C-alpha cells in the first residue's frame, strides 16, 4: 500500500527511441512511432518522449527535435518531448529556438528533458562537439541560459530566442547519477531517472533529490519520473519470449556488437555466456516482464517502495502488434492501481 499522505494518481508515459528492427529502415521506425503515439494517446498516456542518440544502428531518434514535431503533428493532446536532448551537444540558443518553434506550433504540449551525456561513443561525441568537448562542464549554466532565453525578461537582451522567448517551455533534468539529482534539487526542477538502463544509483539519487529539493518558480515540490522497461503480454511465457529482443539489444551493448532490434528467440542461452547474462541482468534491474497479474504485482511493489510520481515505459518489442498490446497492458495495470490507491 502506498504511504503517501495524499495519494496522487501515478502518471504513465512512453519513452521511444524509434527502434529500427531487423529487416526494416528508419522510415519504417518513424511510421511505427506515429502509430504507437496515436495508440497511447487514446489509452490515456500522459507524455511521449524521444531520446537523442547518435551512431547507433538500431536507434533512429538522432534528430530528436524534428521527430518530436513529427509526432506532435500526428497527435492532438498527449505531451511530446525529449528524454532527452543532450545539451552539451548543442548551443542553448539553438535548443531554445527549436523548442520555442515546437511550443509555438503545439502550445501546452512540449517538454524539454535535458541530459549531459553525449548520447553516443566518445569518437562520435568528438565529431558532434568538435573543440567543445568540455561543454559538459557548462551543463548547469547552459540550463540557466535556456531558462533566461525562454523568459519574458530577456526581451531587452541583445541575444534573443525567437520563437521561444516568453514561452517558458517546461525543463526537466534527466540523469542516472547523484550528480543529476543534486542539480535537479538545487534548481527546483522535475527529475527523470534513467533506471531502464542505469539502475545502480536510482534509490540514492531520488532520495537525495527529495531531501534537498528547493522550491522554485517552476516547481513547488519534488517530482520524480522513473523510466523502466516494460514488456507485457497475455501471459508470462509470451512476455518473456518477447523480451528476448530487449535482452539481445543489451547484450549488444555489453559485447560492443550492436545490431538492429532482433526478433525474439526461444533460448537466450544459445547467445550469451554466464558473465554476459549477469551483466545484462544488472542493467535491467528495473524491468517489468510478464502477464497482467505479474506486472500488477511487480508495479505495486515498485510504487510502494519508491513512491515515484510518474512511470515512463520503454518497450523495444520486435513485432508492432505485440508492442502496441504491451503498452495497452501497461496502461491498464497502472490505471487499476490508481483506482485501488484512490480507494484507500
From TrEMBL:
SUPFAM superfamilies xrefs: Bacterial luciferase-like
TM spans (from-to): none
GO annotations of cellular component type: cytosol
InterPro entries associated with the record: Bact_Lucif_Oxidored (IPR050766), CmoO-like (IPR019949), Luciferase-like_dom (IPR011251), Luciferase-like_sf (IPR036661)
Pfam families named among the record's database cross-references: Bac_luciferase
All copies of domain Luciferase-like, residue ranges: 18-301
Molecular function as annotated in GO: oxidoreductase activity, acting on paired donors, with incorporation or reduction of molecular oxygen
Family per record: To bacterial alkanal monooxygenase alpha and beta chains.
Name of the molecule in the record: Luciferase-like monooxygenase
UniProt source species: Dyadobacter jejuensis
Amino acid at each position: 500500500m502506498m504511504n503517501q499522505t495524499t495519494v496522487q494518481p501515478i502518471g504513465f508515459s512512453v519513452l521511444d527511441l524509434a527502434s529500427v528492427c531487423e529487416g526494416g529502415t528508419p522510415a519504417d521506425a518513424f511510421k511505427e512511432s506515429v502509430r504507437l503515439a496515436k495508440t497511447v494517446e487514446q489509452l490515456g498516456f500522459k507524455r511521449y518522449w524521444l531520446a537523442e542518440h547518435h551512431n547507433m544502428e538500431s536507434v533512429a531518434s538522432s534528430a530528436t527535435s524534428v521527430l518530436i514535431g513529427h509526432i506532435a503533428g500526428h497527435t492532438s493532446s498527449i505531451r511530446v518531448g525529449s528524454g532527452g536532448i543532450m545539451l552539451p551537444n548543442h548551443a542553448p540558443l539553438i535548443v531554445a529556438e527549436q523548442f520555442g518553434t515546437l511550443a509555438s506550433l503545439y502550445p501546452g504540449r512540449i517538454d524539454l528533458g535535458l541530459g549531459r551525456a553525449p548520447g553516443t561513443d566518445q569518437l562520435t561525441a568528438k565529431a558532434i562537439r568538435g573543440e567543445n568537448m568540455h561543454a559538459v562542464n557548462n551543463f548547469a549554466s547552459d540550463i540557466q541560459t535556456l531558462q533566461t532565453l525562454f523568459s519574458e525578461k530577456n526581451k531587452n537582451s541583445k541575444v534573443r530566442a525567437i520563437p521561444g522567448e516568453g514561452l517558458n517551455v517546461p525543463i526537466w533534468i534527466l540523469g542516472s547519477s547523484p550528480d543529476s539529482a543534486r542539480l535537479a534539487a538545487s534548481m527546483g526542477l522535475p527529475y527523470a531517472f534513467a533506471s531502464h538502463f542505469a539502475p545502480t544509483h536510482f534509490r540514492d539519487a531520488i532520495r537525495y533529490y527529495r531531501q534537498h529539493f528547493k522550491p522554485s518558480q517552476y516547481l513547488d515540490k519534488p517530482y520524480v519520473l522513473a523510466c523502466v522497461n516494460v514488456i507485457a503480454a497475455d501471459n508470462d511465457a509470451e512476455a518473456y519470449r518477447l523480451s528476448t529482443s530487449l535482452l539481445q539489444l543489451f547484450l549488444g551493448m555489453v559485447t560492443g556488437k550492436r545490431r538492429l532490434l532482433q526478433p525474439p528467440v526461444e533460448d537466450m542461452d544459445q547467445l550469451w555466456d554466464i558473465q554476459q547474462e549477469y551483466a545484462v541482468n544488472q542493467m535491467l534491474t528495473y524491468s517489468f516482464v510478464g502477464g497482467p497479474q505479474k506486472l500488477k504485482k511487480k508495479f505495486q511493489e515498485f510504487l510502494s517502495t519508491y513512491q515515484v510520481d510518474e512511470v515512463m515505459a520503454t518497450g523495444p518489442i520486435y513485432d508492432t502488434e505485440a508492442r502496441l498490446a504491451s503498452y495497452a497492458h501497461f496502461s491498464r495495470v497502472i490505471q487499476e492501481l490508481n483506482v485501488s490507491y484512490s480507494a484507500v
